[in-house]
Write a structure and sequence with these properties.
Elements: H1 9-34, H2 45-99, H3 106-127, E1 148-153, E2 162-168, E3 175-180, E4 183-187, H4 191-194, E5 201-203, E6 217-221, E7 224-228, H5 234-242, E8 248-252, E9 259-263, E10 271-275, H6 278-281, E11 301-303, H7 307-320, H8 323-377, H9 381-406
Length: 415
């Protein structure tokens, strides 16, 4: 079938070709300007889909690396204060050993007590350290408060008020920081663990042989919820605590029939009734208006203390001229505290090394993902410039042809 050629055909064809060439050239110019071959999904739908996934994953990997780097910085600050605390405790031990040799006079012991008291102040200063961001290092998740408070009091043999007791203000919760896909690091900044010396034991003074839970209840031990069913007795409670996986073991005292709790590592036990009054009925804690860890019942006997307790015991014994306590209970508590602190330092060091390896791995993964992104989305600049020059030649040829077509006018027909 013949095609009709009108007087406007050449003009329309030329204009269409020019517009198409301009569009192609603008597309290449845009690709060169952005250094990407995909500026719209229609440019390459499959590659665009893969590119979005790679870019999303790269963002997560970079965040993981940033998280790990931030944690290593915090661990360096934390480890520095812990190392200084260990040095303080070694000096305290030296004084304890010197004071326990039996040849020192009461005046000598009091002079040693003055230095021990200053070292206690240094210990408290380390425990209340803040990081470069102004947050407390050893207060758990309550980073905007001072980790420890000191109560001043009079001590026999001292002529001025000294630190009589130290109380922990922070929490026992630990932040979880993601360092890989669904992989987390627990940030253990709990001061009542770091600055604790001995395993703690709680001896309940109330007879629990006839106790029975009257309703379904929930107790919390060291931050873990334990569910008590109506009708449970003290032996069921002991079994549930022991099966919880906590570093706390429960038992029934063979003499008093009271509930006993003991830690399997050095830390302070936290107890509270979340619903019901199980622990209050057993005499382990006061009513629920009192907050842990200083909510223990009046009948509960406690053994095992913090680094502060060990140093305070040593200082008080020195002020009193009691060399027997210096070489006995005080020195034993200090040795236990040093061992615990060394273990905490080892744990912190191993966490730091793990984070260093995570940083190196995430950095390598980021490089690999960047290569994939480059392969899918980056522009072949040599090919793009060649294509652009070719389009310029075609466009110039089109314009040249158009100039020949449009050169005819009315004068051509008036000769």
């Amino acid at each position: 079938m013949p095609t009709r050629i009108s007087s406007q055909y050449n003009n329309r064809q030329t204009q269409n070709n020019l517009r198409r060439q301009e569009i192609e050239k603008a597309k290449i110019d845009n690709q060169i300007g952005t250094q990407s071959r995909i500026n719209n999904l229609r440019d390459d739908p499959l590659a665009a889909g893969r590119l979005v996934k790679y870019q999303s994953y790269l963002t997560r990997v970079n965040n993981f690396e940033k998280n790990a780097q931030t944690l290593t910085d915090k661990f360096e600050y934390r480890e520095g204060y812990m190392q200084n605390t260990l040095e303080v405790m070694h000096r305290v031990r030296e004084l304890a050993v010197q004071g326990a040799n039996g040849i020192n006079t009461s005046e000598d012991l009091r002079n040693m007590a003055v230095e021990v008291n200053e070292l206690l102040g240094e210990l408290l200063q380390n425990a209340n350290a803040v990081g470069p961001d102004g947050t407390s290092i050893f207060s758990g998740t309550n980073t905007n408060i001072q980790a420890f408070d000191a109560d001043m009091g009079a001590v026999k043999g001292a002529s001025y008020p000294v630190i009589a007791s130290v109380r922990y203000n922070g929490s026992i919760e630990q932040n979880k920081i993601e360092i890989d896909e669904n992989k987390y690091v627990d940030v253990d900044n709990v001061g009542s663990r770091t600055f604790w010396a001995e395993n703690q034991r709680l001896f309940g003074g109330r007879d629990a042989s006839d106790w029975q839970a009257q309703e379904d209840s929930v107790i919390r031990v060291d931050g873990l919820n334990i569910y008590i069913d109506a009708g449970d007795n003290v032996y069921s409670l002991v079994s549930k605590i022991n099966a919880s996986g906590l570093s706390v073991k429960a038992s029934v005292d063979p003499v008093s029939s009271g509930l006993n709790l003991a830690t399997t590592d050095a830390h302070q036990i936290w107890l509270e009734d979340l619903s019901g009054s199980v622990l209050n009925e057993l005499g382990m804690i006061k009513d629920s208006s009192q907050r842990p860890p200083y909510n223990l019942g009046d009948s509960v006997r406690v053994s095992g203390g913090s680094l502060f307790d060990a140093v305070i015991t040593l200082r008080n014994a020195m002020f009193a001229g009691d060399s027997e306590t210096v070489g006995g209970r005080a020195l034993m508590g200090i040795d236990s505290g040093i061992n615990t602190l060394v273990n905490r330092l080892a744990k912190s060091g191993s966490e730091y090394e793990r984070l260093e390896k995570d940083i190196a791995r995430n950095s390598a993964v980021a490089l690999n993902v960047n290569e994939q992104i480059s392969r899918e989305g980056d522009l072949d600049i040599t090919k793009a410039i060649t294509d652009e020059k070719a389009l310029e030649q075609v466009q110039n040829a089109t314009l040249h042809s158009a100039s020949k077509i449009y050169s005819s006018s009315l004068l051509n027909y008036m000769r």
